[in-house]
Amino acid sequence: MPPLRPFVPRPRAILRLGGWLLLAAGAVWLTVAAGFATQAWWRLPDLSAWHTIGLTHEFRADQPDAPASFDAYLAREALLFDEVDRRIYRDPQAAGRDPYGRYTPGSPGARLALDPAGNRSAVLPAAAPQGAVLLVHGLSDAPYMMRSIGEALRERGLTVVTLRLPGHGTVPGALTGVDREDWSAAVALAARHAAGLAGDGRPFYIAGYSTGAALAVLHALRAIDDPTLAMPTRLFLFAPAIGISSAAAIARVAADLAVVPGLEKARWLDVLPEYDPYKYNSFPVNAARQIWGLTRELDRRLRAAQAAGTLARLPRITAFQSMVDATVRAADLGSRLFGRLPAAGHELVVFDVNRRDFLSGLIAPEPMRAFLAMTAAPALPFRLSVVGNRIPESAEVVERIREPGQAGAAVVDLGLRWPAGVVSLGHLALTLPMDDPIYGLTPAPRPGERAFTLGGSAPSGEGGSLLMPLGDLARLRSNPFFPVIVERLQSALRADLARPGPGGARP
Known about the structure:
Elements: H1 11-43, H2 49-52, H3 70-89, H4 108-113, H5 116-119, E1 122-124, E2 131-136, H6 147-154, E3 158-163, H7 180-198, E4 204-209, H8 211-225, E5 234-238, H9 247-250, H10 252-255, E6 268-270, E7 283-284, H11 285-308, E8 316-322, H12 330-338, E9 347-351, H13 365-375, E10 383-389, E11 396-402, E12 410-417, H14 470-473, H15 482-498
Parallel strand pairs: 2-3, 2-4, 4-5, 5-8, 8-9, 9-10
Antiparallel strand pairs: 1-3, 6-7, 10-11, 11-12
């Protein structure tokens, strides 16, 4: 019997196998994309002008004439809103007709959307400035969502700089062409401006919500290696988008078919009525694609900084997170961010679910597991505060604080209670108080203005009776424990003003 010779594949066979694999991968891609585009064509309603127009004055970081200062950014933004007014509100063919629609001229939603205080960038000086803060909102919403955070800090002497991220505050179609580098470049411009307003030796903060929080951390990581970027004294993070579902990346293949005539809807995950003056209800594929890419870049930079031993140069971080969050993965905040940070005065504040006895059997298992994992963890290098029921028999709320390195928790009375009918906070609820005139659960309309509220009691009915899912309307939009946030903001500022040395010094 002749000896066995090892099998050596021929080059031609390897090329043939590679060709078949590429063909199979292409077939899978085409099947997924075609299936997504087909269901979008069948499921989604017709697109409106605010889904399809391209705005020529939006900020793009890669344009030769891109603004190089925040003042230039504000000037470009003024041209942008003039363009929206001309091409949507003053064009009878493009303007909406829904009496409460955001893009219907003269409607309550349009009146609020056109108010410069809600959707535009701004600089709000303090009466006696002691520093400055940059506010960065989340994906698909607007500067209004950070309004109350800014007011709390402005009352304590900080000049407030609010940034409208590119693609936001105008029309949802603007998110189909935006890139996350546009967001990062805008944050860098605004941060430099805010740091200059703070002045040498005074605190400069960045407060970010959701996507804005991820951008704030990314900016600080970049500032470690780039001294031309303004390094904040502290970061305040609200429901930070540290991790999101990988399904956001899968949807990107469908958008490739959107260039085919008749398949433009493939650019969209949702096309819904636009009535919210400060948040898009329609959501394009590109928005999911950009936030997924942002979280991946942030994770890579955090891992690299951890390996290089430079995370100690990050500013102090105070983060606020709901135990239940349908938008971002709350567990990633602990594992991907706080779990990597060295002991340096960081704090994580978690708002628990309502654990009243009569609700305990209805709580979803994931929040229960997250709560048990957090409370049973050994001594932590950061301060952990959990806001929740004093005892299961009561709606009274307390704060359980575990200091760094301690296993036990101190209980602090808050004088707060769970409102009737509220089972949890959530992604949309953290940054606005209960009496917010638009989103508050108990709204207090502005004097002399027609009431327009979106945060009160949700309508009841059968599924499918409204164009909007009933579950979306039931999401809490304001925070019954907002005083906890105000206390943290103001105590941090007091500590920084009392600390010797430059408030904005690089760590």
